[in-house]
Amino acid sequence: MQSRSPIRKCVGCGARRDKIELLRVVNNKGDILVDPGGRTPGRGAYLCPNLDCLDQAIEKGALKKALRKEISDEIYTKISEEIKHG
Ligand SMILES: [Zn+2]
């Protein structure tokens, strides 16, 4: 059976999953935004919605690389809050 949504790769654990199962983080003109709807334009990265994957992505530098932006504590907190509450 074919999946309806595209497959994306988590920048943390590297798992390939349905796009809708992943949390999109986007660099929108220099602002890092969490984009649950997947509609914000800009350079995006995908994460499984859990803190382990966020931590892995930070530790490997994968999120920074994907978004071409340093991940500050503020950004980290914003993403982790979205994971916890979103
Ligand atoms: Zn993951």
What's the short version?
The chain is α+β, with helices and mostly antiparallel strands.
Textual characterization of the structure:
The protein has 86 residues and is α+β, with helices and mostly antiparallel strands. It has one domain (7-85): Hypothetical Cytosolic Protein, Chain: A. It contains 3 helices and 5 strands, in the order βββββααα. The chain has helices at residues 51-59, 62-67, 73-85, and strands spanning 7-9, 16-18, 23-28, 31-34, 43-47. It has a 3-stranded antiparallel sheet. The structure holds zinc ion (ZN). Zinc ion binds at residues 10, 12-13, 15, 48, 53. This is YlxR domain-containing protein. It comes from Halanaerobium praevalens (strain ATCC 33744 / DSM 2228 / GSL).
Q: What is the rounded distance between the termini?
A: 29 Å
Reported for the largest beta sheet, the result is: 3 strands, antiparallel
Secondary structure tally: strands: 5
The succession of helices and strands, N to C, reads EEEEEHHH
CATH architecture: 2-Layer Sandwich
What is the helical fraction, as a range of percent?
Answer: 25-40%
Protein name: YlxR domain-containing protein
Pfam family, one: YlxR
Domain YlxR: 8-80
Organism: Halanaerobium praevalens (strain ATCC 33744 / DSM 2228 / GSL)
